[in-house]
Design goal:
The protein is of the alpha/beta class. It is 43% helix and 24% strand.
Length: 756
Amino acid sequence: MTGETLNILVIEDCATDFKLIKLQVEGQGFAATFTWIADRDRLAESLQESWDLVLADYNVPHMEFEETLETIRSRYPALPVILVSGSVGEEQAVELLKRGMSDFVHKDNLPRLAPCITRALKEAQEHRGRVQAEEALFSSERKYRCMFDNAPVGVGIGELATGRLVEVNAAWLEILGFKHEEVVGRTAVELGIYLNNAQRLAIVQHLKENGRMINQPLRLRRKSGEIADLLCSAEIVDIGSTPYMQFLLIDVTEEMNIKRALAASEETLRKLYVAVNQSPTAIVITDRYGTIDFVNPRFSEMTGYSAEEMVGKNPQLLWAQLCKGEVWQGDFCNTRKDGTVFWEHDIISPIRNQAGEITHYMAIKEDISDKRTMEEQLRQAQKMEAVGQLAGGVAHDFNNIMQVITGNAYLQSMENQLRGMGTQHLDEIIRAVEHGSSLTKSLLVFSHKNAVELTYFDLNELLGQSHKLASKLVTEEIVIALELCAEPLHILADAGLVQQIVFNLVTNARDAISGRGSVTIRTRQVEAGGAPLPCGCSAISGSYAMLSVRDTGHGIPEEIRGRIFEPFFTTNEIGKGTGLGLAMIYGTVQRMNGFIAVQSPAEGGTEFVICVPLTPPPAVAPHSEEQGAVTGSGELILVVEDEEAVRSALTRTLVSAGYRAVAAGSGEEALTLAKRSTGIALALIDMILPGINGIECSQGLNSLHPSLPVIFLTGYDNDMLAERGISANVLHKPIQSTRLVQRIKEVLEAREEQGR
């Protein structure tokens, strides 16, 4: 391919690969002599000779290619070195190219070697031409060297086409922070001087169009990474046949920094002015004697006083402390121009000059009225949470006790009926248990730890049943009058909680009456038709059952009337009330979609008015068995309950109702009994048991007796069950024995229906 004989040095440890390379080069028409070496000592000797080309393998024993490349480059900077290897990846080859390797040929693709050699030799020849041109340039301009080196501005010369720098002076190096050997032979792009590639292209374009550039602003990157502001002058000069770009740089970084600092300061002042005027907090600035110099618009919005009304005034606020140079902050109550009161949080601090002397004071004022209201609401919520935790903590044990009482009262009542004896006192006990359990339920509903149990009932009928028990809550000097409307008032609510509301209101009325007096419980049906209901609620449509409890007591002062429904608020002496009664009533009424209000009749006393939506009862009311009726037919019921008294009461209740019963005190014991017992018809399981819980016990029973129906009992509130990962339909203790027996009958009948 060429008449000139090439002197090629081949670094290769494999003789076969050397022969293949030699045959490939000669086969492509190159006239060449080859010298083959495979160790480091031969390399040092070989570099004493003159070479046109080096072909080197990467993996040669005891010869690191990178070190070999560096050695060759130090001796022959322009000598082409082509890597011929079968073990180098593309990324590694790219790195080696950056270090000065001319090209890379994979051993599996040796036909590519010929064009690579041609290109490498051509580039070497071009490099030699550039070197010769540079030498000619330096020789012809030797007389200007002293002027160039000592010029007070940075001067640089680079190839117009490539941007490769051929010379820079000391001022250029000082401006950009490089050493001479780091610059010559490399481009500004390689050195990272330009902020982006478009900068040089724009300069070259400008020179081609206009011939020269004079003192144009230019920003370049120093070696340190800092940005330098420069004035750039440039022109195109032809040296020999090659066009070069000559440029002069004047460093104006310091001057530009000063200008930018001034501009930034002005912008900061502008932003500060805007921020102060648009601040959501009020800002007041006074002189050192307390006379107001400035107030921002928020101050005027917060207080009602304009800037004109305040500037020049001296409020003398906290002057003694401020004169010491201390920062003061705190909350206090203030008055607006219109006379309304608000709370504000102030931070007042001194403003000092450079000598440290106080010249002014600045007050930052924030209206915290809403914040204080929210904090008060948070405190009330925390009180409610405390009530819920207290109620949840005692609910389980209390309800178990109530379950024992109601179960034994039921059994004794049945025994009395069989003997023909009266059950009046036992009925009172059962109703008292319901009243006691309603106390716990009211606390749980009030603190949102339990859902209300909604059922359909007639409010008038419930009040008629409760009248006798309510009469026992007051002294003989107080008369309880019941004035019920003629028509039935069917509502969907929790009967126990409604009864508890009445009892609480009657108790409060008793405490408000000194000596003789009366409490009147009245009902009637009201319609919401655009005007507020008698209780003052905002309902505009629908029919409501209205319940009012009115007393002839001392009444509620107007100044505290708005707080009576707050948790723990009470006017009673210490030890005479918790302050929870009305708060529980308020929460319970809300949970039943009702409304409550307090009124002060003209003739004295207090009247509480409650409105609950009327709800027509279902077409078919559920049938309930009479107390004491035998409903079982000898079916075997498994009772799982860890409290012995509760377990005993439940077992005897079931037996008295015509069932057979087997009892276990834990889930493990229940599973053992279930393995030995056959014909278990239903399991009655306490949810929380020692060891495995009720759900796990139910799952174990189901594996022994598939499709075994289960009724769960619990004395815990719903939140406590949720914390333990338990979710199921449960009956909450205490449950009336008649209701429990009826529920068992319904479940067994449903199971029998499914089996048909």
